[in-house]
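Hi again,

Forgot to attach this to my earlier email, sorry! This is the prediction with zinc ion bound. I've pasted everything inline since the attachment limit keeps bouncing my files.
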Amino acid sequence: MAEAEDKNRVYIFDTTLRDGEQAPGFSMSNAQKLRMAHKLSDLGVDIIEAGFARASQGDFDSISAIAKEVKGSTICSLSRCNEGDIEASGKALAPSDNKRIHVFIATSPIHREFKLKMSKEEIVDRAVAGIKQALTYTDNVEFSAEDAIRTERDYLAQVLGAAIEAGARTVNIPDTVGYTTPDEIKDLFTWLLANVKGADKAIFSAHCHNDLGLAVANSLAAVQAGGRQIECTINGIGERAGNASLEEVVMAMRVRGSEYGVHTNINTPMIYPASRLLANITGQSAARNKAIVGENAFAHESGIHQHGMLANRETYEIMKPEDIGLVKSNLVLGKHSGRHAFVDKIKTLGLTLADDKVDTVFVAFKALADKKKEIYDSDIEALVLGEGKVNIGPWTLTAMKAYSGQEKDFNPSAEITLTHEDGRTVTQTSKGEGPVNAGFEAVKEITGIDVTLENFKITAVTRGDDAQGTSTIHVRYKDDLYHGQGISTDVVVSAIEALVEVVNRIERKSAANHDARIHAQL
Ligand code: KIV
Ligand code: ZN
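Structure tokens for the complex follow:
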């Protein structure tokens, strides 16, 4: 087996920024992807699939920035087996001295006939040519046979053998449509490892989608049969029902180490901070009952369970919250806490903050401590993940009043004042179904940006009457989906802040497009 001198090591290939980001509702800006990539490297993932370089200029730039800045993990870009794609990946990855190009082509009969309209031989030739071209940029090339699970076994073995002979170090067997079962994939990996020519020269990888809820079980079954790379995502995000969840496969192999007899290099206390960062960036939290990182994963509500836990934690706990970086501590910071204690707390919580952001977040912390009696860990987490929520304009919410009530003939309303960086200050009073709706109408009226609200959620950051509330909104503007977040001890203010964040993003994007058009005309 190439590369893996340690035959029991399973490589973790994270595709949160590629397969994950591809899913509706999970798009990230380039700055957010870079922040996430740093976190993935702190988590110790072996390979970060940073994107699909040829997909767009934005993807190309983001892969380049990650390749330049993020050390410690191999940085990878996806390409179809064609010259343009591979060249784009090679160029985007150029700044990295630890890179991988991942080439793929579909192999199943349905894809051959209806999507590619290519013969079996043409597909093998294309795969080999793609791998050879990728090798001119790096000796670390991975090949994927898309829809491998629905491919005839003999043909799959032929393609993978040709890929290894052409120089692919890793061969990936995707369950593109989430169709397989643990028994079936275990049998397939066992058979492939015995029948693919040169199998001992490559790492065999599993890439499982979750359409039947089996992605994690299937990935683990592939490992039992000798697979030594798992492709997965944080919180299991990904196309349709998602990909195998990184935290679940990693913790299963760790907690049931003697069952699987393998290990990974994942720094597990970074799992929870990575999951929370992704949720914050995308505005999509993991389900409350999600294994490992869901809010209830370590909560013991019933009396019987609590009694057992007090007697011995292992009565109801198979792993410790600390193992995944869930630090449960009491409030320790208040308005008299200094910068040193604040930075220390950030580290204890497994959070990271760039040096140039510390001052801003510390100022936001002091402002919050003035308003709120008690500062909990989750308050600190919200401040750090939002990086102190500095509004970068062009619009700023400078004042607002909202009226709600239940009297007959009473109409809720909101008076909103926004200031634009060009010097305009505009006040608008609007009516609505409630104060939030009225405030949204006023913001849309002032900015002229008529978004459609698709989803609106308020969550309390901590317990207590004076808890901060986070408002997360998802809106549609023209054909694009945007999300914004606001955080305040007043939930109506947090909702309006969330919309202001979104209209700012839309206005900045259209200004950038306008500049690009003018530039192109010059
Ligand atoms: O699901 C899939 O087949 C993929 C490949 C591109 C690896 O994501
Ligand atoms: Zn996939």
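Residues 19, 104, 144, 146, 172, 174, 176, 207, 209 surround 3-methyl-2-oxobutanoic acid (ligand 1) (CB under 6 Å). The first strand starts at residue 11 and ends at 14.

That should be everything now.

G.
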